[in-house]
Backbone:
């Protein structure tokens, strides 16, 4: 606890944290409670339960709080075309007609006409009963005996290295006075000198920190009222310009296959082939590449890392009559232990701090569908179907009967096991849900993480994902630094993918349909760029109603949607090997045949470059799978997880050109918001030539992609963009190509497989 400083009958105080005298003073202690009785009282204690009304004669709220008795249910009042009832955790609300319940979780339903049981259609949360078969609406009431702290805004002055966090304190529901307000600010593990100014009459406060290095500052606010203490953690980025997740470019790293920074933790398993064994990549290796500037040179602003939880050290049976190590990290055997092959907890903290110092966000894979059979949760609840989806028997010899490959990956998605040593969580168990959420909060807070890539979302019940999103939003994220959750659902159907996206669940999913469209358009020797344009209009604009292709814009995927766009990942064959005809679709190809060589056809890398040209200039969060920036080869898993290559001596001229193009595209996207979130408007579309304008405010950029036949076309300028005759369009990627608008058109003459991004100038 911080040392108290008295606050007498004054309007505001400023307290500075001093780091050199051993006394950390950043708390305001109000000993005159009359001074803050004008501080507003929290208003979130009561919840209005409502249900559409038609010709019913009665409606009641029935739940665990009244023994599920309809007779004892709380009557709802009809208000026009709506039945309504207020429920509150503040006893003072009883005087206003609200029914008072203890703070916490309450299961309930609305019962119409004494016998028609309904879920609350306005409540996005639900809970299953003890049988796990029946869902009820879930009411979550706050503890209103505590004060409440709300973030109201942040201000970052990059030039003066100063940041300010503004907040509002609200008194408890009973109106008790605020006794003390305190804060502490951290940049990684370093406590920052900072000031707290708090207005005892209004409850408004501001934390100010100066000489702040670049990175992510975490400010912990506390408010005391009587015996109650409320806390709020708020992240603030010290960066030149405020950016959101829609502004990032993510790089996907398979930790074990990236870079070995600490050989002392390698520990491969004796007798296993290298491609299915631990190969030494670790967190120190990634940190070393951060310090070398590898990611900044490439233009990457976010990292997606393998699951950090500990995995078994011994081999386990897998496909192709092989035993595998857990190098991929998808066999978590500990709730909070770190993977020893990747390093220590301090190593991961160091990595995150190094990334944050460069403005780079860090997201980790979050495996919440299953655990390894020796995990402490499985040992504690072995044989209990309330915790795990057993196949009808707890005999380990019969666990194979619940394998997804035996039952059906889609037909039994929510209950099947990936394999016989990976027990599948029963997310209908609320006690389990609470544990998984607490673990997620611990990882996010302990390691200062910025997001989760949620693995296998089609296998996870939405009740867990929604409550996880709620907890992360409330406990970890901030208004200017939201915690991002993107899911993985390996399907090509937007209708199914979008089911788990929304303001109460995932912010986005990986866009497999877009991935399929890009590959279909540019992998063949005869590219078809017109298909890409049709896909954009059919899938983004016409179907989803996203006219500006911005993730904030409205559509069936709702406000706040940010999809992860990619050309490759750890579950699919590498682009270069598919384009070279090396992949035969055999899941055991990497074992049954010699490893495929790196393709020597330069047009393959040129086609991949065109794919990146599209990926990095359309809506969504682009994700680059490690090695794809130079066309690393590989067929099916595990060959698509080859060790990363850093030496230029191992690259062909075509690979170097591809890597250079990707870096130039990344930097262009970082520099021009229109490429990230601007409106897409196709100016020209044919198989060999696609041109579209990206516009945001006054910024306009013309993107031109050429196919295998090159682009030789007159591209007409559309009205409304102020692209008039005489305007010169200069390529911002290479700076050597420019065209001039004449006759309301530009003549484009590009060789095969080119990418150009033109910016209007004088």
Residues:
């Amino acid at each position: 606890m911080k040392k108290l400083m008295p606050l007498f009958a004054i309007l505001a105080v400023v307290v500075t944290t001093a780091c050199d005298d051993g006394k950390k003073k950043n708390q305001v202690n109000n000993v005159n409670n009359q001074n803050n009785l004008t501080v507003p009282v929290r208003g979130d204690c009561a919840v209005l339960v409502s249900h559409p009304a038609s010709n019913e004669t009665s409606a009641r709220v029935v739940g665990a709080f009244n023994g599920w008795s309809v007779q004892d249910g709380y009557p709802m009042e009809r208000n026009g075309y709506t039945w309504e009832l207020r429920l509150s955790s503040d006893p003072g609300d009883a005087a206003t007609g609200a029914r008072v319940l203890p703070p916490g979780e309450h299961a309930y339903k609305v019962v119409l006409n004494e016998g028609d049981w309904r879920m609350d259609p306005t409540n996005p949360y639900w809970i299953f009963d003890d049988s796990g078969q029946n869902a009820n609406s879930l009411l979550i009431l706050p503890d209103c005996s505590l004060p409440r702290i709300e973030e109201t805004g942040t201000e970052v002055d990059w030039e003066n290295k100063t940041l300010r966090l503004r907040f509002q304190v609200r008194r408890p529901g009973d109106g008790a006075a605020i006794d003390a307000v305190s804060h502490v600010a951290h940049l990684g593990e370093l406590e920052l000198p900072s000031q707290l100014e708090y207005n005892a009459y209004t409850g408004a406060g501001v934390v100010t920190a100066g000489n702040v290095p670049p990175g992510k500052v975490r400010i912990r606010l506390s408010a005391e009222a009587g015996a109650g203490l409320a806390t709020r953690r708020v992240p603030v980025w010290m960066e030149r310009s405020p950016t959101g997740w829609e502004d990032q470019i993510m790089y996907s790293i398979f930790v074990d296959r990236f870079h070995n920074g600490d050989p002392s933790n390698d520990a491969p398993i004796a007798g296993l082939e290298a491609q299915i064994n631990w190969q030494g990549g670790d967190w120190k290796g990634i940190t070393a590449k951060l310090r070398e500037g590898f990611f900044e040179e490439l233009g990457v602003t976010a990292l997606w890392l393998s699951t950090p939880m500990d995995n078994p050290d011994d081999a386990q049976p897998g496909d192709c009559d092989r035993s595998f190590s857990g190098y991929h990290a998808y066999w978590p055997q500990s709730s909070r232990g770190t993977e020893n092959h990747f390093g220590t907890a301090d190593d991961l903290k160091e990595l995150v701090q190094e990334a944050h110092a460069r403005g780079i966000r860090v997201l980790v894979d979050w495996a919440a569908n299953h655990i390894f059979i020796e995990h402490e949760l499985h040992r504690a609840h072995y044989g209990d179907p309330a915790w795990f989806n057993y196949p009808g028997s707890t005999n380990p010899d019969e666990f194979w009967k619940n394998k997804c490959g035996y039952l059906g990956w889609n037909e039994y998605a929510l209950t099947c096991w990936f394999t016989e040593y990976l027990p599948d969580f029963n997310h209908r168990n609320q006690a389990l849900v609470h544990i998984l959420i607490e673990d997620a909060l611990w990882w996010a807070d302990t390691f200062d993480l910025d997001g989760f890539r949620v693995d296998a979302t089609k296998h996870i019940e939405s009740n867990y994902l929604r409550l996880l999103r709620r907890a992360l939003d409330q406990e970890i994220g901030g208004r200017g630094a939201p915690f991002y959750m993107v899911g993985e659902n390996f399907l090509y159907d937007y209708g199914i993918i979008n089911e788990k996206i929304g303001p109460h669940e995932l912010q986005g999913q990986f866009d497999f349909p877009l991935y399929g469209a890009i590959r279909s358009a540019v992998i063949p020797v005869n590219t078809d760029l017109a298909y890409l344009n049709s896909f954009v209009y059919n899938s983004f604009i016409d179907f989803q109603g996203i006219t500006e292709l911005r993730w904030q814009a409205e559509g069936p995927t709702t406000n706040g949607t940010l999809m992860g766009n990619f050309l490759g990942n750890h579950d699919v064959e590498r682009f270069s090997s598919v384009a070279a005809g090396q992949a035969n679709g055999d899941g055991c190809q990497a074992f049954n045949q010699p490893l495929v060589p790196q393709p020597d056809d330069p047009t393959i890398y040129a086609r991949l470059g065109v794919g990146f040209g599209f990926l990095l200039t359309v809506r969504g969060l682009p994700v680059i799978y490690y090695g794809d920036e130079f066309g690393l080869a590989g067929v099916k898993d595990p060959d698509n997880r080859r060790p990363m290559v850093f030496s230029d001596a191992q690259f062909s001229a075509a690979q170097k050109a591809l890597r250079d193009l990707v870096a130039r595209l990344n930097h262009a996207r970082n520099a021009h918001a229109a490429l990230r979130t601007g409106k897409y408007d196709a100016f020209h579309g044919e198989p060999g030539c696609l041109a579209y304008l990206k516009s945001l405010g006054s910024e306009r950029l013309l993107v031109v992609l050429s196919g295998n036949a090159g682009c030789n076309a007159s591209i007409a300028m559309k009205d409304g963009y102020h692209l008039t005759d005489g305007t010169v369009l200069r390529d911002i990627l290479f700076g050597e190509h420019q065209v001039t608008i004449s006759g309301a058109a530009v003549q484009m003459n590009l060789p095969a497989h080119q990418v150009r991004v033109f910016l209007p100038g004088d």
Summary: Residues 46-141 form a domain with the Immunoglobulin-like fold (CATH 2.60.40.10). The longest helix spans residues 653-671.
